[in-house]
Amino acid sequence: MPQQLVVGAGMIGRPLAERLAARGDQVSIATRSGAAAAGAESVVLNAGDPTAFSRAAAGASTIFLCTNPRYTDWPSQWPPVIDAAIKAATASGAALVVMGNLYPYGLPDGPMTEHSPETTTETKGVVRREGWRLVREAHERGEMKAVEVRASDYFGPDVVGTAHLGDRFFTAILGSKTARVVGLPGLVHSWSYLPDIVTTLVAASDHAGDWGRLWHVPSAAISRSEIADQLNRRYGSRGRVRGYPQLLLRSLGAMNPMMREIWASSYQFLVPYLIDSTETERELGVSATPWAQALRTTAESYRRPGAAT
Description:
By secondary structure, the protein is α/β, with parallel strands linked by helices. The protein contains eleven helices and twelve strands. The protein has helices at residues 13-22, 50-57, 74-92, 123-140, 167-174, 194-206, 224-235, 246-253, 257-264, 278-284, 291-303, and strands at 3-7, 26-31, 41-44, 62-65, 95-101, 146-151, 153-155, 178-181, 188-193, 214-216, 220-223, 240-243.
């Protein structure tokens, strides 16, 4: 029975741990708080502590690095986590699967593939680009084997918080109100469905071919204006979408560190922002959940009694 260590119990880590446990793997889920996941053993871990990380990874077949610090903490928290993960994988012999995003590519001039140049100059993108560089170089030195799975902005049932296509967006539209969003809502944007992210992570960990590379999560491409229209047609609502003025975002960022980071990466919503997963689909045999099904499942999660309002 494979032993798996999932680090992080957020919107991706918890369902990943539960998917692995459901297929019969022995799973530990590690967080600072000791958060639980169905079928998994809870482990208390500071992922930036290399000694503790290596201890937690002992005997593991795969380490799934799914933690995600607050935007404002990326420069201080990601480097020690990456260093500890590399050391843990090296010491334990476990493969390392890193959950990543599209930030390293910077401002795109077309669909982003697994081989697109990483041209970012924005702080969060530089942090993630540097983290993958260190992981890839450790792999190339033969110290361990690793891959990174990259997704676009995620959505799915019961997503809450700061997600661009989360509870605030859905509850506003379904409540016939105005959803305020970053950027230009009429531009096409790629959206990665949470169950598809989990499927890609599992497929990447099972891959018998080359490692030391990137995989892209198969994703849907659609504008937020069209999403609102589809929801309105299906549910009889009259919700609208309006973008925050860029000047307002920048002004708020001068006073609020989190808003400053949101403004810094808002370029992703000022141009068409598309992920190309052709290679991943061909090599890993994964595909995106049909859009209508994913949207319906997500919307229904916010219509249940007790759902976010």
